[in-house]
Every structure is written in C-alpha cells, then in structure tokens.
Design brief:
Five copies of one chain form a homopentamer. By secondary structure, chain A is mainly alpha-helical. Chain A is built from eleven helices and no strands. Chains B and C meet through helix 2, helix 3 and helix 8 of B and helix 1 and helix 9 of C.
C-alpha cells in the first residue's frame, strides 16, 4: 500500500474542501454543478480517448492500480538476492539456479535466470533483456499517456465550459445583477473543474506513473547487470561490488555493515 | 475500424453540445457565428499551411484515415508469423520463403523477406531496414505536423478574433448594454472556436497520429529483429524467445500456453 | 515557386481581413495604429536583433527566399540520378563521373562526386560529408532562429504595448466613456499586433524554415548513402535497392514500375 | 555556508515585503489570510506528494540542506589531490594509496582509489564508476522533483483558490461595494500565494538543486578521469594536463603559475 | 564591438520609449514607479540569485561583456591559419609550430598545438580537446543560466507586484474613480516591468549568450579537426578540403578563388 498517493490526495482534497467550506461558511452548493461536470469532464476525457489508442487507455487504467500497490523495488534487496545467486552459481554451478528461475515472483528475473542457465551467449542475453526493458519503458509511456492527456485537456475544456457559459450570459445582460453574478459563478465553476482535473485529479497520477516506470526500469537494470556479472563467472564479492554502484553511499555502508 | 477515435470525439462533442444546449435552454444559436468560423478557422488553417510544405500537408491528410482504420499491429500475431517463417526456413531453406515475400500484405515484411532470400549481408539488411524505419518515422512526423500546427495556431487565432471583435466594440461603447453584451458574446465565440480547435478538433488527431507512428515503428522493429534472427540461422524457438522480449509478461504467458 | 507559403498566408490574411471588415461593417480604421505598429513591431524586432548575432540575422533573411522558391528535393529524382552514376561508374569506371562532378547544380553532390573520383578513403568521405550535413543543419538553425525569436517576442511586446496604453488610460479615468472605450481599443490593438506577429507573420516562417532544413538534410543523406554505395563498387541494382529505403512504399512501386 | 541561497531569498522576500509595506502604508494585514495559506499551500503540497513516491520526497527534503551547506566541489583542488596521488603512485606504487582510500572524505573517491589499488580491470573500473555517477544523477532528479512539482502545482492551486473565492463572491453580488472589494482581495490573495510558491519559494530551490547535481556529477567526472589516468600508469604531469581540460583557461594559468 | 546587441536594444527601447511618449503626449511619469522597480526587479533578481550558485552568477556577469565585444570566430580565418600550420609542419616538421603554440591568442589553439608538437597520441589529443570543449559548453550554460532565470522569474514577479497592488486597491473600493484608476495604473506598472525584464532586458541577453556559446564551440571543433588532420600527417590540401566542410558553399567558393 503506497501511503503517499492516499496521503497526497487526502491533503490536496482536504485543503480544497476546507477552503470551499470556510469561504462559503459551509454552503458548498455553488461548487457542485452537474452540467459543468459533464461538460468539462466529458470533454477532457473524450479528447484524451480520441487522442489515445484503446490499447493504451486500457494500459493506463491497469497501470493505475500501481499507484496504490506501491513500488516493491527495493534495490538493496535485489542486490542481496543476486549476490545469493552468484554464491549458488559459484558453489554448485549455474544449473543450481533452475529452481529460482521457476519460483522468482518477477518474470524478468525468471527469464534472465533461465537464459543464464541455458548458457545463452552473454551478448544475446544483454540484447534480449535490453529489448525487454526498452519495450517496458515504451509501454509505460502509453500507460502514463492517457492520464497526461486528460490533465492536458482539462484546463482547455474548463475554458470551453467557461466560454460557453459566458456567451450565454452576455446575450442576456439586461437581467438583474444577482442573475448575472450567479451565471458568472457557473462560468467560473467550469474553469475550476478544468484546473482541478489538471492539479488535483489527473496531473499527479501522470507524474507518479512516470516515476514508477523509472523505478521499475532502474530495478530491471540492476537485475540485468547482476545476471551478466554472474554469467561472466564473477566472484560473488565482485558481483556485489559492481551492483553497489547503484545505491547511495549511505545504503552501501548499511549493506557492508550487514554483510560484515 | 478504430472505435477509440469515434468514441472519444463522440464523448467530447456530446459533452460540449449537451453543455451548450443545457446552459442556453436549447437555444444554441449564439454559439454559431459563420464570420468567426471563417476568421478563426481560416486563420489557423492558413497559418498551418504557410508553415508546412505542401507535401507534408498531403501526407497529413492521407495519414488521417489511419485514425479510423485502426492499428493492425498485433505484436503477438507478427511474432507467430515470423516464428512460422523461421520453421519454414529451418525445414526447407530460406528459398521456401519466396511465396511469403510476394504475398505478405506489409511491404516492409515483403522487402525484408526478399533481402533474406537474396542472402544479402546481414549488416546491409539491418542498415537498409533501419533506414526504412527511420525514414518512415520522419515522414510520420510530417503527417502529424500539420494537425499539430493547426492545434497550435488555434488558440492564437481565437485570440485574434476576440481582439478584432473587442476593438470594434470599444469604439462604440455608447451603445446600450444589450448590444455591448451581444458584441462581447461574439468576441468570446472567437476564443471558444480557438479553444475548440485545440482541444476537440485538431489536438487529439495530432496526438493519435504520433501514437500510431510509434506503434508502426515498434511493429517494424519486431519484424526486423525477427528477420535478422532467421537470417542468423537461429532455431525457431530461439527466434521466438528473442521476439517475446517485445511483449508484456502477460502476453508471453498467453503465447507460451498457446504454443504448448 | 512554392505555392504553399503564398496560399497559406493568403488564406490566413484573407480570413483576418474578412473578419475585420465584416465585424466593423467595412470600417477597418480602428485596426490600423501606426504608433502601435512601431511600438510592438520595433520592440519585437529589436529584442530579436539583440538576441541574435548579426551573421545569423543575415542568414535568416537570406534563408527566407527559400520560402517561395520551394524545395527541389525530389528524392525519387536524386535516386535515379545516383543510380545513373552507378551505371556509368560500373561501365566506364569512376573517372567517367568527372563531368558530372563539374556540372551538377548541387555543390554537395559535386563535392561528393569529386571525393569519389579522387578515390578518397570511404571513411574519410563519410566524415567529410557528415560534417558538411551537420554544419548545414547548424547554420539552418541560425536561419530559423531570428524568425522564431521575432515570433516569441511578439506576444510579449504586444502585452507591453497593451500595458503602456492601459496605464495611460487609468491615469485619466474621469474622461467620458467614449474616450475610455477608444483608449481601450488602442490597448487591444497592441495585443492584436503581438498575436499577429506570432500567428500570421513570423511564426509560420520559422516553422517552414525548420521543415525545409530537414528536407535538405534528408536529400543530402540520400546523396551521401548513394555515393558511399557507388564507392563500395556496388551493382547499380543494389545501389537502387539501398536508396529505395528512403522513399515510401507507394513511391517504391511507382519507381519499380517505371524501371521495369 | 552558501551565502547565495540566503542572499537571494533575502533580496526577493525583502523586495516583496517592502512592496507590500509601502503600497499599504504599512498595513500588510490584507496579505495574510490563513484560509488561503491552507487552501493554496495544502493543495500544492498535496498534489506534489500524490505525484511523487515517498522515497523521492524524503530524498528531496534531505537534499534541501545542500542549499545552505554550499558546494565543496573545487575542481582545482580535486585536480591537485589527484596529481598528488599520481605522484605517490609513481614513487611508491599504487598500494601506497591505501591510506588515502580509507581517509578521503568523499566516498566516491575512496571507492575509486580502492578499485585502483585492487588492480581492477580499467574497463570494469570505468563501468562501475560510470554507473555510480549515472545512478547519482538519477537520484538527484528525484531530490529535485518534489520541489519542482510544488512549484509547478503552485500557480494552478492559486487559481483554484481564486476561483473558489470568486464563485462564492458572485453568488452574493448584491452586497455593498466594500464587501465585494474585500472578497475580491481574498480571491487575489490566493493567486498571490500561488505565484509566490512558484517564484519565491519552491521554484528557486528546484533550480538550485538541479545546478548542484550537475556540479557534483562534474566533480565526480574529474575524479574518474583522474583515477583512470593514474591506473594507466601515466606520468603525474600527463595526469595534470589531462585534467586541466576541465577548468577554464584562467584557472589553468593560475594553477600552472602555482605549480611553477 | 558587436553592433547587433547595441542596435537591437536601441531599436527595442526606442520603440518602447516612443510608444510611451506618444501615448501620454510626452508625460511618461506614470511609467516610472520606484517602488515597483524595487519590488519587481528585486524579486526577480533575488529569485534568480537564490536559484543559481554564486560561481555561476559571477560567470554570467563576466560572460555579459561578450555581448558587446562580438564574436571573433571567423571560420574562414581559422581554416586559413590551420592550413598555414599544415604547410609549416609539412615543410619543417611539427616542431616548427613551437612559436605559434606560444603566440596564438586563443589558449585552446595554443594547447592543441603544444599537444601536437609533443607527439601526444592522437586519441589522447582528441579526448583532451573534446573534454575541453564539453567543459566549456557546460560553463557557458552556467553563464547563460542567470540571465535566463531573471527572464523567467520576471513575469512571475510582475504578477506578484500587480496582485500586491490590486489587493491593496480592492480593500479600499469606496475611494473616488480617479484614485482607483491611479491605483490600477500602479498595478499594471508592475506587470509592465515584469514583461520588460523578460522581453527587452534579460531575455535577449540569455538568447545571445546561448548563441555565442554555440559559435565558440563550433570554432573550437574546427580547430580540433584541423589539428588532428595535421597530426595525421595529411597534405595541406587535404586538411583544407576536410575543414571546408564546415563552411557554406558560398564561402567555399570564395576561399577557393582566393587560393587560386
């Protein structure tokens, strides 16, 4: 459970709700306009759907669950695991990694281990795994894209809604000030919804999916370097030393203290 | 038929139309101003034409039909096909691919197969096909560019129209409020049209063409890697394993289950 | 004569002129303010001059004539020419290209042919021609930059003019409404000019120069690959096949039909 | 102590405070609205938290202390140190660097020296240190990201606050002018806070963290090149000459004069 | 003396001054508000200082003198010089370049000649000079950054000043219209100053410094290629032909005519 997403949205929406409630002395009715919800939301979501292949939209929605499941990409843990495999390979030969290549939860690691066991040529292994990482990054971009498109079209559609309301208003300027004020408020609600889509709905999702993608690619890079080092027949200590380059100095010291 | 484009535009325009209809209680006349259509649309399209070579404009219009024909780039299908070719080549020699090199619907695949059959040097094959992919990506950028230019110039031309109307208005401020309101409404219609061009007309087209281009390049990359692997005389299982790097873990498992 | 630039500007300015003429019922006087022309235009051009070396400004102005002369970069034509050279070289030796290396209208092709005739080392030829392409792209960026700078500073200077007029206005708010309206109109004319510079004057020029540069680089890339293929002593059919990667499938088929 | 950060914030906030104080004749009360602080600040910080993994947020906060501690990355000093090591290695062998590899304050240098002493293969050393620099740059991006996100969401959330206040206001347009003015002032305070977050709070922090990251990467690049040169058994003068490429001509002359 | 910078600023400021003078009939007092100068200027400069390390600020100020000294990077001249060195080296050996390596005004050329005379390994020479060019580009970015930051923070701080003034104003809406107008004018002066910082003060400086940096890097690239060609023992004609790739066709012809 990634507490960050929940916490962040909680703070942002809490602050927004508190502001609305405080400024209107608790009468937040004026901020809720179903017509504007349909107009702004439908327009932004529709434009994003029109601009994104269906496959990418589905990928986006699937990727969204990662926002809450949190990243399990503990680099230190991956390094320990790989050093363990290096020790096994050293002691009992790479064939002893057979079991791990079937049981490991991460399919990338399973595949990499299988290639190592098969004695595939190191250059081929690197090419296969590199393609896999690059294809994953490309797919992640799709996953992020739909939310980024919604966030991007949000303010534009808020502007559309605002203009639609204002045009209606200016055709009827003879009305009483209260009616004009009320109509202007409706126009501003459209702008508000557009800004909300960008700032407290879709924007942070797109940002975070981009981040999670980088973390996954980073974790897979560590795995790949480790597997290639095992395949090169390196001593477990050398494998460890190579992989420690991926972590901070602080983490390096913690890991060395644990190892000692 | 790519349902996504139709669906997305349907939702966006539906939401916009509903909003206009609801806010004016069904009198959507104020949103339809032929003069502003000519002013904003002509200005944005004209600026985009001036900024794009004619060849690229024609490419843009041709590319637009892809928005509805949908992408036929099913990576799993391509992989199966290539593995089939690898089996044929293994069993009967590469010359047995002659028929496929004539019948395949994709000219890139035909060309690649022909080069393979001709026994062209692998490095030359890779260079030729790589140039073909790169040149295609470059052409696709042209195809996307015109729509992106229309989308970019849209809001600027909406602003032009709004200013043109407001300047006319402010020269005649002595008029009655109704006339002023009506003139202001005309000014806002210009802004509305500019925002519509960007958000619910040309913007999503440009976005989607960019996406489709990436998908085509991805599909051709898979084909190229597969053909090179066949040419290297690899076992069909090795060809398959190499190409599976291009698909998700989920797809990998589906494909392995089907193969088993 | 590149009809696109003329056509595009014609449409954009026609639409703008029609809009002004229609909205004011033919009295377009309010849109013409010499002071604002000097203020906005001088400010944008001056800022662009200050931000661009004189050499690059001269390059910009020279490059502008390309907007109307059109691109003569017909890839199919270049390919045919090079295949012809390959046939000559095959039949009579590379020295037979001497005449072409003196008569060809494109200095890049002349230089490339000369290097080929001189029997310069292929790697050196590639490096020399690559530097020439890269240096050309760099110079083209300069040529585009001045117009891009004018387009970028346009709206900012329009805002400056608008603020200058509004500040003068607000110091004299006691005047009659007609005077205020007229002054506001002047302020908006400044904004209008800024938006015009960006959208219907300098913006499309900058866009198109960028495009033309890419096309020239593309044409020179085709020439370079062809010359290197001739130098490698390739069969004219192989040279043709390699260069056909640069054109679309449709063009490939047209060319093959013509050749057959 | 990096005087720049303190000085810059002092000038910016001093100018802002002076402006507020002067314009209101010392009554700066209207600029202080706790509700708007909660609304704008909470919304921007919440959106940034939702868009950033917790790990990266913590990295951001840790990185912030670098803003004040200043950069200790004196390239000239690093070069002198490495030339000293080169002299030691020349005179007494690389094993004589053992002590330095334990005492040096920078863990990257310690690690690099240790690898050199161990006689690790130069290509492996380069790869390990390169991964370490790249991973550091990646982590620094995370450290910068949170502040950049706060700066980015700031104006959007200021707009949200402004709209929330204006909508409440327009529902009650019948009030007296003073009340309306006061309510409009509250709306503008929201916008003001958003602009402050971007311009005088989070924006400069994000900028400076980006700078500091580049400087650290630059310093580590110098160290790596120096260590590789020592490992190649180069003469201390050659090591020095190679590293002097990293500094300006002015610094080169100063260093040569000191050395002479 | 680079006439471009002076000319550009002259035109921009002339146009702005003329506009102010003409619109107010010569009473430009309303545009001069010391409080706003302090508020907007202090805020933008302070934010830029806070976001830039002190070293980079000093580099920025030093780099600014280049705006007026003009670029002495005449590629044709550099080529002639290097061809002269190639002739000397051919005739009298590279040691005859000793004098030039001491007298040349450009330290990069001096250093390159010295490395050539020392008979340093060509790959090492290329690496050293490449690092020098890259480090110079990096430093130039710092030099440009401060001005770019001032330009970027300018409009934001102009908005801050405008909001500060408007908030004060709306608290006192009961005042007479003249007072309100005057206060609004003050608010707009803040916006004006922000737009001026971006468009006619810091923006062009940042643009031009970026340009000058590219030109210096280009000139040094020409020098490096020439020196490497001399070191490879190439014939002066070959050196010339290689370097001519860096100049336009027009310049090539001029140079060849002069040489003939």
């Amino acid at each position: 459970m990634d507490i960050g997403t929940v916490l962040g949205y909680g703070i942002a929406w809490g602050a927004l709700g508190f502001g609305m409630w405080h400024i209107t002395h608790g009468a937040i009715g004026p901020y809720i306009k179903p017509t504007e919800v349909i107009l702004v939301g439908g327009c932004a979501v529709g434009a994003a759907i029109a601009g994104t292949p269906l496959k990418a939209i589905i990928a986006s929605l699937k990727a969204s669950k990662k926002l809450f499941s949190g990243g399990h990409h503990d680099t230190a843990h991956i390094i320990k695991e790989i050093v363990g495999y290096a020790e096994t390979a050293r002691r009992d030969g790479v064939l002893a990694l057979e079991q791990a290549s079937k049981d490991h939860p991460d399919p990338f690691m399973r595949r990499g281990l299988q290639l190592t066991i098969d004695g595939t040529d190191p250059e081929v292994v690197e090419r296969i795994l590199r393609i896999e990482i690059d294809a994953m990054i490309e797919r992640h971009k799709h996953g992020k894209h739909f939310w980024a498109a919604v966030a991007k079209f949000g303010p534009g559609c808020g502007l559309l809604a605002c203009l639609v309301a204002q045009i209606a208003l200016f055709k009827n300027l003879n009305g009483d000030p209260a009616a004009i004020g009320s109509a202007l408020a409706v126009a501003l609600v459209g702008t508000l919804y557009g800004a909300m889509i960008q700032n407290v709905i879709a924007g942070p999702i797109a940002e975070k999916l981009g981040f999670i993608s980088k973390e996954e690619a980073f974790a897979k890079e560590v795995m790949m370097q480790g597997l290639l080092s095992i395949q090169a027949g390196n001593n477990p200590r050398v494998v460890e030393m190579q992989l420690m380059s991926f972590v901070t100095t602080g983490q390096q010291q913690v890991m060395m203290r644990q190892a000692a």
